[in-house]
Specification:
Blueprint: H1 2-31, H2 35-38, H3 46-71, H4 75-93, H5 96-123
Length: 139
């Protein structure tokens, strides 16, 4: 059960990180001229975006991967893969005018994957680590 609770907490962190990434990608083009005036020009650096993507992938992989073993629902994994593909394709292959549309969509898709994972993990009340065979003849 402890593993399930830590996964639920990772989902909350993952939702937050993914939504922040989507907000960053959606509003950065609008706020780009104001960043130096606000003293937060570091958000323009490529390493900030790369760090957000890496952090999202790590948190999502640990959280959704470990919870899948418990709830056995594929939807979070499918949404996670779609979101990560959107993020990577937008970041690596799309021109800037399309990147700023597709990246937030990918971030929100990853956040949605975390939400469903969190929902499924919260509904799963069986302690799968202490399973005992119902049929005593089966060992």
């Amino acid at each position: 059960m402890k593993k399930l609770k830590s996964s639920v907490n990772l989902d909350k962190i993952g939702i937050s990180a993914s939504v922040l990434c989507a907000i960053h990608c959606a509003f950065l083009p609008i706020l780009i001229t104001m960043l130096p005036l606000l003293g937060i020009g570091f958000l323009l650096k490529g390493w900030t975006e790369s760090l957000m993507i890496i952090l999202s992938i790590l948190i999502a992989g640990v959280s959704i991967g470990s919870s899948y073993k418990i709830h056995q629902k594929c939807l979070p994994l499918v949404l996670l893969m779609i979101g990560l593909v959107l993020i990577l394709v937008a970041h690596l292959f799309l021109p800037e005018n399309l990147e700023h549309i597709v990246l937030p969509a990918g971030g929100l898709t990853v956040a949605t994957a975390h939400y469903f994972n969190w929902s499924y993990a919260g509904k799963c009340s069986v302690n799968h680590t202490d399973t005992v065979s119902v049929n005593p003849s089966v060992k």
